Amino acid sequence: MKAFHFLLPLALALAFSFASASDPSPLQDFCVAIPEPKNAVFVNGKFCKNPNLTVAGDFSISGLNIPAFTGNRVGSNVTLINVDKIPGLNTLGISLARLDFAPYGGLNPPHIHPRATEILVVVEGTLYVGFVTSNPNRLFTKVLYPGDVFVFPIGLIHFQFNIAKTNAVAFAGLSSQNPGVITIANAIFGPNPPINPDVLAKAFQLDNYTVEKLQKLFATT
């Protein structure tokens, strides 16, 4: 019985901790972000501007209609509009991205957003998209056309790939003011300092020469 009295509060505490594991809910109409004061400690989010000094420009940005450069190695470009671009997003728990893809082969490589679920809508072109679940790993994929929508759950590896001979454009909403991104290949083969090649060789069942070649390749990106 004593164990029950101990476990019940623990279970309730865990439940509440999971329920609040997302961007904080605002306790006011808005909290326009300002640079941190000198020597301040960054915890989460930003400091707030005096509401009387807030202007419409704190909630707006232009230029998302302009195509981004896609002549890079992966043939894609992501223009993220987060709290650093629109200070008024602070505490509101959302952000937006424009995704541009080069003709056939433009790829937004496998990556995760550690703090956000993503909902994507295609406005131009044809995209092959998908995500992989946690163990046991299941792959969910779909070909999307203009007007189609797809959801990528928080924290799961996902990708988008242009399978048409024309440019592709999509917009994505994310459930965090600062969703973060971890591109899998870059994180594995390109961190600084690099991961011990012996670790990667065994993990990926590769020889050390191949691992070191990949590390040199991604160290330059």
TrEMBL record:
One Gene Ontology molecular-function label: manganese ion binding
Record Gene3D superfamilies: Jelly Rolls
Leader peptide range in chain numbering: 1-21
A single cellular component GO annotation: apoplast
Ranges where the Cupin type-1 domain occurs: 64-212
Residues bound to Mn(2+): H111, H113, E118, H158
Keywords: Apoplast, Disulfide bond, Glycoprotein, Manganese, Metal-binding, Secreted, Signal
Disulfide bridge partners, by residue number: C31-C48
Location(s) in or outside the cell: Secreted, Extracellular space, Apoplast
Residues reported in the UniProt entry to bind oxalate: N108, H113, E118
Location (main, coarse): secreted
PROSITE patterns found in the cross-reference section: GERMIN
InterPro entries: Cupin_1, Germin, Germin_Mn-BS, RmlC-like_jellyroll, RmlC_Cupin_sf
SMART domains: Cupin_1 (SM00835)
Family classification: Belongs to the germin family.
Family annotation (PANTHER family): GERMIN-LIKE PROTEIN SUBFAMILY 3 MEMBER 3
Purpose: May play a role in plant defense. Probably has no oxalate oxidase activity even if the active site is conserved.
Protein name per Swiss-Prot or TrEMBL: Germin-like protein
